[in-house]
Design brief:
This is Uracil phosphoribosyltransferase. It catalyses: UMP + diphosphate = 5-phospho-alpha-D-ribose 1-diphosphate + uracil. With about 210 residues, the chain is an alpha/beta fold. It has helices at about 10-20, 25-45, 80-90, 140-150, 165-175, 200-205; strands at about 5, 50-55, 60-65, 70-80, 95, 100-105, 110-115, 125-130, 135, 155-160, 160, 180, 185, 185-190, 195. The strands form four sheets. Strands 1, 4, 5, 6, 7, 8, 10 and 12 form an eight-stranded mixed beta sheet that branches. The longest helix is centred in the N-terminal third of the chain and has 19 residues, at about 25-45. It is globular, with a radius of gyration of 18 Å. The mean pLDDT is about 95. The protein binds 1-O-pyrophosphono-5-O-phosphono-alpha-D-ribofuranose, uracil and magnesium ion. Magnesium ion binds near residues 80, 200, 202 and 203.
C-alpha cells in the first residue's frame, strides 16, 4: 500500500487557504480549484515516460525529450470533480475525459452512482480520478470499482482535501491506487464533513447553496 503524496508546494498551500475561507465567492473558488488542479497535475504526471527524438532548433540539430507511449484519461467524479478537470486539461490537452456521477446520501452518507461514461479505449489509458474532497472515502472507492470494471492501465486519485478516515479507507480498498492530496485534514465531523475542510465543494463551485 503506497503512502498518500501530500503536495505541499507553497503555491498550492496558499491557494488551499483561500478556498477554505468561507468568504471566498463561487467565481474565485472555481478559479482557485482549477489552478490547484493544474499544479497537482504537475505532481501526478511526474512519472510519465519520455523518449528522445531528434529536432532542429534555429541553431543546430539536437536530441530532445517528449512524452512517449502513455495515454491519459481524466475522470472527474460529478459534480465537484468537474471543477478540477479544466486545470488538468490545460496541461494535458490530449487527455480524454470520462465522467462518473456520484452523490452522497445526506442521511446515510453512503455514495450512489447515477452516471458513468468512460472513453472507449480506457483499457489503454492511465486514469487520473478527480474529486476535491475525500471524506469517508465511499465515493472514491465506488468510483474506482466502476473504473476497474473497464480495466484501465492504472488509476491515480487526485483530491485537494483528504480526511485521514478517507485516506485509510481508500488505501485499504484499493492499495494499488496512488492518492495525491493537497492537505491531510484533521477528521470528519458527525455529519461526515471534513474538519477544518472547506464545506461542500460542489455547492461552493456551482453556487447551489
Ligand atoms: O468520501 P465521501 O464520504 O464519499 O465524500 C466525498 C464526496 O462528497 C462530495 O460529493 P457530493 O455527494 O456532495 O456530491 P456533489 O459533488 O454533487 O456535491 C465530494 O465531492 C465527494 O464526491
Ligand atoms: O467536507 C466534505 C465532505 C464531503 N463532501 C464535501 O463536499 N465536503
Ligand atoms: Mg456536494
Amino acid at each position: 500500500m503506497s503512502k498518500p503524496i501530500i503536495t505541499d508546494h507553497p503555491l498550492i498551500q496558499h491557494k488551499v487557504t483561500l478556498i477554505r475561507d468561507k468568504n471566498t465567492p463561487s467565481k474565485e473558488f472555481r478559479e482557485l480549484v482549477s489552478e490547484i488542479a493544474m499544479l497537482m497535475c504537475y505532481e501526478a504526471t511526474r512519472d510519465l515516460p519520455l523518449k528522445e527524438i531528434e529536432i532542429e532548433t534555429p541553431m543546430t540539430v539536437t536530441k530532445s525529450k517528449v512524452i512517449s507511449g502513455r495515454k491519459l484519461a481524466f475522470v472527474p467524479i460529478l459534480r465537484a470533480g468537474l471543477g478540477m478537470c479544466d486545470g488538468m486539461l490545460a496541461l494535458v490537452p490530449a487527455a480524454k475525459v470520462g465522467h462518473i456521477g456520484m452523490y452522497r446520501d445526506p442521511e446515510t452518507h453512503t455514495p450512489h452512482e447515477y452516471y458513468c461514461k468512460l472513453p472507449a479505449d480506457i483499457e489503454e489509458r492511465d486514469v487520473i480520478l478527480l474529486d476535491p474532497m475525500l471524506a469517508t472515502g465511499g465515493s472514491a472507492i465506488d468510483a474506482v470499482n466502476a473504473l476497474k470494471k473497464r480495466s484501465p492501465r492504472s488509476i491515480k486519485f487526485v483530491c485537494i482535501i483528504a480526511a485521514p478516515e478517507g485516506i485509510e479507507a481508500l488505501s485499504a480498498a484499493h492499495p494499488d491506487v496512488q492518492i495525491y492530496a493537497a492537505s491531510r485534514d484533521e477528521r470528519l465531523n458527525e455529519n461526515k464533513y471534513i474538519l477544518p475542510g472547506l464545506g461542500d465543494a460542489g455547492d461552493r463551485i456551482f453556487g447551489t447553496k
